[in-house]
Amino acid sequence: MNTIVTSREAILDGALALAAAKGLNALNMRAVAAQCGVAVGSVYNYFPSKAELTAAVVGHVWQEIFHEAGPHEVQGGFCGEVAWFFAAARRGCARWPNFFSMHAVGFSADEKAAGRAEMDRAFAHMRAGLREALHADKAVRADAFTADFTEDAFVDFVFAGLLMQLSRGEDSCAVLLELIRRALY
Description:
Elements: H1 8-22, H2 29-36, H3 40-46, H4 50-67, H5 77-95, H6 99-102, H7 112-136, H8 151-167, H9 174-184
């Protein structure tokens, strides 16, 4: 085995290649070391546990799906943002099969906290983008929201709907978009 010094990025790239080829469940320190051609200790040097390695992979995949989808200029207000989000995520599903349904179960019981923290951070970022698009949409009725039906609760509902449709492998979010239109405009 080659024990050359490598970088965190090179190990993460190897872990990503392994996850893309065999799924998140295939990630373990020995398999990643073999993929990278380095000693197992080199992997542990950058990722002290499988939980941290898996969380880094999950975080990178979320970033790739939404930040590397290319710049986007939202047209169509909040509905346009939701449609863009869904399309970007669908492209991510093609690159990372079963990611939406499997990433939460890719962690053992001991690793769920680290995986959950990474997932929560990514989800908070995505919900913030949806909130921003909602605030920027000048076509939303002035009386669309109330003390019981808040913007934050609405964004959370839309986000949950998007994730559910993605995890089920839906090809369209047309029903969700229609619900948004009926609630906001």
